[in-house]
Amino acid sequence: MALAFVGALSALGLNLVAGYAGQLNLAHAGFVAIGAYTVGILTVDHGVPFWIAFALAGVVSAAAGAAVGLVSLRLRGDTFAIFTLCVGFILYLGIEKWDGLTRGVVGLMDIPAPPGIGPVSFATDRGQYYLALGVLAVGVWLMRRITASLVGRSFLAIRNGEALAQALGLNPMRTKLTAFVISTFYAGIAGALYAGQVRFLGPDIARETRTFDALIFAVVGGMGTLLGPVVGAVGMSWAIQALQGLQDYRMVVFGPLLVLCIMFFPAGIVGALEARFARRRAALAEKRLAEAAPVPGAAPRGSHA
């Protein structure tokens, strides 16, 4: 569950730039890896306290996201997605080949566990669970504030049409870059949590398959919804664990289940629920208006025959 919470935090960041701003960043796992290796390198090689490295992980990932975004966000649609896929592969190769910094394919080992805060210890599995849950709760709360603000509404305006948003006075490049930087900050924090839990890092953390995992979490839960990535990450983690008994055949079962979920819930689980509640609220509002409307031919209330 702690790893599921980390996946949910990563998916929250990807959902912001892809689901709200409409920019599919396929290098997302690379920024998760930047955050994770920032913690690993600073704590193992330079003796930096874990929580300082943890905070720097988000900043370093966001700075790398700003540099990549300034170049990539000038592209649109499929071209942008393919460009970021190439950037993600470059980040993966950089981690694999830069032996002097990242240890290459050998991996970075002996990353310290997050130290306790006061009487609270994070050295145990239970402590890691509550740490990941707490960070995820803060991440969801911040994301709620962002998406409900004018900044969040500008992301939606860009997704729905850049030309119209620009005509309304928005700066498309600045708006998309803001979403990209916030997204990569979330990725860096997710990577920092992952490093503190697993305590070993290898190049595979930056593979494109990790990006597709986060993307599937968001799609299954509901792309462009607040809680969709959380529901998708937790639900899919439970499903995968429940199918562990099938060993090599579990993906034969899991694949069709995933396809059926996308077929019957194209807007995701949370998206389908939100649409259902919206229809119910609309029906109730229409019913109240019908009851309040005067009946044709009826005498006004308070009049005498």
Automatic annotation (TrEMBL):
Q: How does it sit in the membrane?
A: Multi-pass membrane protein
Q: Which InterPro entries match?
A: ABC_transp_permease, LivM-like
Q: Which UniProt keywords apply?
A: Cell membrane, Membrane, Transmembrane, Transmembrane helix
Question: GO MF annotations for this entry?
Answer: branched-chain amino acid transmembrane transporter activity
Q: GO CC annotations?
A: plasma membrane
Q: Which residues cross the membrane?
A: 51-73, 79-95, 129-146, 177-195, 215-240, 252-273
Q: List localization entries.
A: Cell membrane
Protein name in UniProt: Branched-chain amino acid ABC transporter permease
Q: Which organism is it from?
A: Lichenibacterium minor
Species classification:
Bacteria, Pseudomonadati, Pseudomonadota, Alphaproteobacteria, Hyphomicrobiales
